[in-house]
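Review form for a predicted model. The reviewer records the input and the model, then writes brief findings.
Reviewer: anonymous (R2)
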Amino acid sequence: MDEREWLTEQFAEHRPRLRAVAYRMLGSVTEADDALQDAWLRVGRADTDAVDNVGGWLTTVVARVCLNMLRSRAARREQPLDTHVPDPIISRDDGADPETGALLADSVGLALLVVLETLTPAERLAFVLHDMFAVPFDAIAPMIERTPAAARQLASRARRRVRGQAPAPDPDIARQRVVVDAFFAAARAGDFDALVAVLAPDAVLRSDGGPKRPRLSFVLDGAKAIAGSALTTRALSPFVRPALVNGAAGVVVMPRGKLMVVMAFTVSDGRIVAIDVLADPERLATLDLSALDS
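Model under review:
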């Protein structure tokens, strides 16, 4: 086996982990796949004679590509986005989707990815690589041109923000589904009090309508505000279809079979603490829903 064949085999073997790294770094499946393609081109031109840990080296290559993409993304934005919901991963409600399971092995909820969007590129890299993939700070530091101690501080800062804004969800999907079903049952019944009861008092709803639906880009804070909004949209209830959204209980809204909205729920201690809504028609059109039909 020549070096090119060996590299191809190694890249294919590590691809699930590399794609997971890229998705957590970028919050976009399309961009994650682009990052892997760019990384493969770089790997093909690299000298591997001094490489001892192939998996670690490939992770570093992908992480550097993602870091550059994040920096370019930040430079293009004239002002920060008010509301940006990353690309959701949709799978069957019974969880029978091995490929999605590999991508979301750590159950990276959409609420967590929303918080990661608020981090600087260096903070995001340090947190994702260390806290999610156990990459040591000695390896992270050269990627962001910092000392290991500075990389540790970046990850710590990111960790505090994540803990404060993205509560850990209930690990039991069945319990999550009971709460989400109660939310929609209350909405269909027009029961404001029941809606408030199923929501945490400080719950947050983030909606991203994209440039085509700017009126659907907003943030609602508090159970009463969210309950009131749910009542105004209960006409969509007949088109709600259960699904897993980033490994957690969620729904897709599909009137006449056309995807209109994806809703991800974060359930903690028996109540909904966060709802993340993607309603951007351009991005919805790119989502892979094939798992729902299998």
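Findings: The radius of gyration is 20 Å.
Further findings: Residues 3-26 form the longest helix (24 residues).
Recommendation: see findings above.
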